[in-house]
Design brief:
heterodimer, A: 243 residues, alpha/beta, six-stranded mixed beta sheet, four-stranded antiparallel beta sheet, 10 strands, B: mainly alpha, 2 domains, 10 helices, 0% strand
């Protein structure tokens, strides 16, 4: 990737293995500050593992990660995780209502979320205030994803990691969330790293893209590389997805 | 009780053996083993206790209590295999429970400082503490396994390990304590406790037997609370590393 931009996150020969199984293999690359970078690739490519490393939920078994040119290990873990927010793929919820879940990031810091703010976050992701006191176990998959996105926004992180956050949403909701994320990126200069299986989404909202396969970073560059990949494996993958 | 009378109680072993055979339960071997073990173990304990009571030495009392703690630890630790250093955490908990409860009982002169009181009471308290530890560890490991996503979520939002695992910890502590509290609610209504029954059969005044039973059930409340909370708060930190990442339970 061209280094025209200051990196928000830089990975230097990052590998990750569990029980001798290599999940990530010597990945080197940067996510530009204030830009949207999408991560695409087949399932099992190591995309989620990479995202969890950037949030500090996992540590590389080899290599180094830096955030704003500082080693990730220099950050106190709880501070790091507020600075680098993540919306997890499964959209996990704590036991309780939508409000309990929205308030969680602040409750963990000993703060409170006002009802007005909670409603605003819900409206931002396309849910009205009738959802506020609804138990999360009554939500559909798409509604859970929306609540998960809203909850991730509450820490007002400078870097947002989004793991397939629109996979369970209808077409209109996907467009709404894309517009919301784009606005957050443009208005607050938040760096976005977004895992998606939707190549059209990667093309339309991503400034840059990483193509990962089998734990390796195969190709990186501006999102337009997805239209004409130089790597034959990527070309085959893109063709397969578009078929 | 004469040995002839005791022999006749084996009828209560024969009945389940016959029923097991009749209904093909396949429990005959286990029943026989359990019977033989209980006879050998209890007779051995009886002779050891007689020796310790006759000797009256504090060293023997200490060794008996240490042996109880060791046996209880070896039994309870099986349920916490995935928790690093669980053996010493259980030992520390049982020793604390013993010191606190016996400290109150002996320190305030509630019971005499003799082997006849210290050893049986220790046995009941350590035994209960062991059961509580097993119940806690069983529930705690199950809670963690089934709520990994929730724990990871709280960590990912900047929560501490204590915040991340708080609900699972509290659920496990409560679940392990419920049997002790519930059994105390119905004590005397549904069943007469073993110790109290033993004393009454042995010819003791029922009111005095009740007083000792109350002493035990109050002490059991402390052991239950202390055991669950101590094992819980000693165990959860080792499930995370210094980067506040959850470690895999092996």
């Amino acid at each position: 990737m061209t280094m025209l931009y200051e990196p928000a996150i830089h990975l230097q020969q990052v590998s990750f293995a569990v029980n001798d199984k290599n999940i990530l293999k010597s990945i080197t690359g940067s996510f530009p500050k204030g830009k949207i970078t999408t991560l695409v690739g087949p399932s099992g490519a190591g995309k989620t593992t990479l995202l969890k490393m950037c949030n500090g939920l996992l540590s590389p078994t080899e290599g180094h990660i830096s955030i704003n040119n500082q080693p990730i290990t220099n950050y106190e873990p709880t501070t790091l995780r507020k600075y680098v927010g993540i919306a997890l793929q499964a959209a996990p919820m704590i036991h309780g209502t939508v409000f309990d879940n929205l308030a969680l990031p602040l409750v963990l810091q000993g703060k409170k979320l006002t009802k007005q703010d909670a409603i605003q976050y819900l409206l931002d992701v396309g849910l009205d205030n009738s959802f506020l006191h609804r138990p999360t176990n009554e939500l559909s998959g798409g509604q859970r994803q929306k609540v998960s996105i809203a909850r991730t926004l509450i820490n007002q992180s400078s870097i947002l990691l989004l793991d397939e956050i629109t996979s369970a949403l209808d077409r209109q909701s996907v467009q709404d969330i894309e517009a919301l994320i784009t606005t957050i990126n443009e208005k607050y200069n938040v760096t976005i790293i977004w895992i998606t299986h939707n190549l059209q989404q990667a093309l339309t909202i991503g400034h840059y893209t990483w193509v990962m396969m089998g734990g390796e970073l195969i190709e990186t560059g501006e999102s337009s590389i997805l239209r004409a990949p130089s790597n034959p494996r990527v070309a085959e993958f893109v063709q397969g997805v578009n078929a | 009780m004469t040995y002839t009378s005791l022999s006749l109680t084996l009828i209560f072993v024969l009945i389940p053996l016959v029923l097991s055979k009749t209904f093909k339960l396949g429990l005959e071997k286990d029943t026989v083993i359990a019977t033989i073990r209980s006879i050998i173990q209890l007779l051995a304990v009886g002779y050891i206790l007689k020796f310790v009571f006759d000797a009256g030495s504090p060293i023997y009392i200490f060794l008996m209590v240490a042996l109880m703690i060791l046996a209880a630890t070896l039994n309870a630790r099986k349920k916490g295999k995935g928790i690093k250093g669980i053996t010493w955490k259980i030992v520390f908990t049982l020793v604390t429970v013993e010191i606190v409860t016996q400290g109150v009982l002996l320190g305030f002169g509630i019971v005499p400082t003799t082997a006849q009181y210290i050893i049986p009471i220790s046995g009941m308290l350590i035994g209960n503490s062991m059961v509580l530890s097993i119940l806690f560890l069983n529930r705690f490991t199950a809670e963690i396994t089934s709520h990994q996503n929730e724990i990871e979520l709280i960590l990912s939002l900047g929560g501490t390990p204590k915040q991340a695992i708080h609900r699972q910890l509290i659920n496990a502590i409560k679940a392990s304590m419920i049997p002790t509290i519930e059994s105390q609610k119905t004590i005397g209504l549904v069943q007469l406790p073993g110790m109290m029954s033993g004393q009454i059969i042995g010819g003791a005044d029922p009111i005095q037997a009740v007083q000792f039973q109350l002493l035990i059930i109050f002490a059991l409340l402390t052991t239950a609370t202390l055991s669950s909370i101590m094992i819980g708060f000693l165990s959860y930190p080792v499930l995370f590393n210094d980067r506040l990442q959850m470690l895999e339970m092996k």
